[in-house]
């Protein structure tokens, strides 16, 4: 029996009224409509988060006794408008990284919804800076120079699911490693780095396309100039992601990044397992004892100045931008959907006939933030909380 759905709303791009017909999980028509529609209800693509370490108490960086429990991450993210995400596996022992990759592969094979929500894996490390500051919360003992044979092993174990890697080009051999990634169709992002200007320039020439969570994973103090922040900001061939939770970057820094990177600036959550959990004190896999405040700030227990990761989701990032007048509705929505998608699919158009029907309807409130009304995944309606 054919499943079909008709959605009406104002386009997130220009506010024009549109009617979208969906059949068998795909968009079959997009037409203007004369229906009497609310001024403040918008329709657009579901969000894509390319950096999800964990969510709702579950962690992609821990081996689970019940692999299928990780499927709840996809379901909980759908409730906040994230229709697609990349599980992000951070620096660990080679054996543990292998086990975590295999875990995601198995999850997708046994959970149909997770398979649809997870188009790729993001490997963040272990080929990052060993220095305190740039290394962030990554385990120092497992940081190492780029090793193509090891990474090729992980690619094979992922059955082609690894779509991106974050590394620091400060290591000898980084250029050839990046070139190998480019030839393998894997996006290279620069992050957790202490690279020199010339090393960053060479990395971009070799094929690096992105700066991950720009402005974070850095020394507390850096040289006035040159430094790796200026070098990444200056390179027009580097797109950039930011964490817009109000804690990782001040508003004025986001304003500057936006002016410099323009349409090449996008959002990630970099969420850890405590994202989506109630406020309180927790014992975290990374960071030990931590506190999650009612404002969603996650910091070390007894030390509010040291962040212990991100406890946000992409919708909260979008709303931070909107409420603080850091982006228009269409810009913020694009930063969480089309822009990251186009890193992997340059021809992507969310309203194109034949595209997967991953859409959201949201109402814009008086404070400019969005309130989800409907989430459509593969043409089926998901009821948000």
Structural descriptors:
385 residues, alpha/beta, Urease, subunit C, domain 1, TIM Barrel, 8-stranded parallel beta sheet, 7-stranded mixed beta sheet, 11 helices, 21 strands, globular
**Mean pLDDT rating:** 94
* Rg calculated over all Cα atoms: 20 Å
What is the CATH topology of the largest domain? TIM Barrel
Total number of helical segments? 11
Based on CA inertia axes, which overall geometry fits?
globular
Structural class: alpha/beta
* Distance between the first and last residues' Cα: 29 Å
Instruction: Give, in spatial order, the strands making up the sheet with the most strands.
Output: 5-8-9-10-11-12-13-14
Helix content: 25-40%
CATH class designation of the largest domain: Alpha Beta
Number of domains: 2
CATH superfamily of the largest domain: Metal-dependent hydrolases
Number-wise, the strands total 21
User: Which ranges are low-confidence, i.e. pLDDT below 50, for 5 or more consecutive residues?
Assistant: none
For the sheet with most strands, the description reads: 8 strands, parallel
Beta content comes to: 25-35%
CATH architectural label of the largest domain? Alpha-Beta Barrel
